[in-house]
Amino acid sequence: MGQADTSRLQSFLSGRWTDGNDQGATLVNPTTERALATASTTGLDLAAAVEFARTKGGPALRAMSFAERGAALKALSAVIHEQREALIDVGIANAGNTRGDAKFDIDGATGTLAAYAHWAKSLPDSASLPDGEGMQLGRTSRFHGQHVWTSRRGVAVHINAFNFPAWGMMEKAACALLAGVPVLSKPATPTAMMAEHIARLVADAGILPEGAFSALVGSAGDLLDHLDAQDGVAFTGSSDTARRLRVHPSFVERGARLNVEADSLNATVVASDVDADSDCFDLFVRDTAREMTQKAGQKCTATRRIFVPDELVDAACEALAAELGKIQVGDPSQKGVRMGPLTTAGQLGDVRAGIDRLAAESAVVTGGSERITETGYFLAPTLLRARDGAAAAFHAEEVFGPVACVLPYSGAVTEAARLVALGGGGLVTSVYSDDRKLPVELASELAPYSGRLYLAGSRLADQGTGAGTVLPSMIHGGPGRAGGGEELGGIRGLHFWMQRTALQGFKAVVEGNFGAASPVSAPS
Ligand code: NAP
Description:
This protein is α/β, with parallel strands linked by helices. It has 15 helices and 21 strands.
């Protein structure tokens, strides 16, 4: 596995391992606060790295069939899975993950690769994918139209957030590689040890052709300056960074594509049919406590706003506080610990300040902004109770930690929808109800504000994944504040890396070479 445990992380660019010419950033173990590694990209020739991927990796990938690319994804999944235990240790040390948190990240990576490998088998043995049915365009059937997808000729730049260094890297890579586009992955620096380990596995395995995969470990430097119209960037991170990226000349002037997956004030709505003695209520409490505390709440899909009918607020606060009280917080390498520290000192400071701001408009039910240990970036799971469900702070600020707020509402569908919409668009909204009609009414009202709706109830208690789990078969992304982007969703996930073209011509030419049933409806 190469130099997996060195304290100097490296980048894999232009087909070789390299690093910057200064000390760079220091990565820290958030449990002990000890330095683990450094990473620098200063002085690296990123123009050459982009060009290498474009000119070596692109043609080599496009020379492979969809089935061959899928087979490569399957092999990569196996290679990474083989190192699962070593990678779990990295997640514990560098990200403060519990074993469960680390597995969630790593198995998400290998599972997504395997899913795309499976779907690749159903794709045609051709350079393009048909999009929907062909159609007659002229007076007779000779003049025919067909939409097709072809691989873009540029580079897929993937900029990832710190919270899912394994899954974020590989869910993006799976889509781009299967689409025939070379990947240049840029993990977030604070947790880049995991990403660098995986990059070494990918590079050392020799499964992908030269240039098909690169990794920039450390700051992005001038990477974006070298992109043009055939390139794309899939960004995951904060709205602040997204705002800066959106105005970069590569996108605004040169037409490179940008997909943004950003903040989200994910909501849970307990519908008016749920009472405190029901199985549905118990499920809501268990799910919400887990969604708040998995990865110490540093999950883009974590629940932030919990809308509860007025008469259920006392019971919900009491039950959630009791459930959160069972969660042991501490050194994530220890058995029994279910929540580790926040990942960085910066995160700890931001979350503490965020709790204080929200607490100014709410009561603290459990937890708070005080550190609970002298060493390590630990906080207790924190539940707040808002006096006014519409108070601006709860709908404006994402506190990216184990923090959520119970917000009262009347139980009316229209009010729930109005309050959820105040968040400006989210990745996932959950609804808890055992009624047949209420979830339908809520779904219709909430869908325009949500990338995904998780309709939970006691009938699915033994099967539901929880709202926080992103499945490769379903799209991930959300409107407005959440970035407006879209990833995954089965074969849909390839489209961002491909060009859709309307082909119009003689039917035998168009249909014979490009037509087929739409692969979009292929297995999901
Ligand atoms: P961040 O500070 O915005 O950083 C995200 C990535 O952007 C990092 O790789 C960072 O690199 C890079 N970056 C920063 N400035 C850049 C620039 N000028 N040019 C190019 N790249 C730049 O976010 P984070 O703290 O890592 O992640 C937490 C946030 O991500 C939360 O707000 C969370 O909601 C969001 N998130 C969203 C999703 C989703 O799917 N919607 C998933 C996970 C997380 P460095 O680390 O080197 O600075």
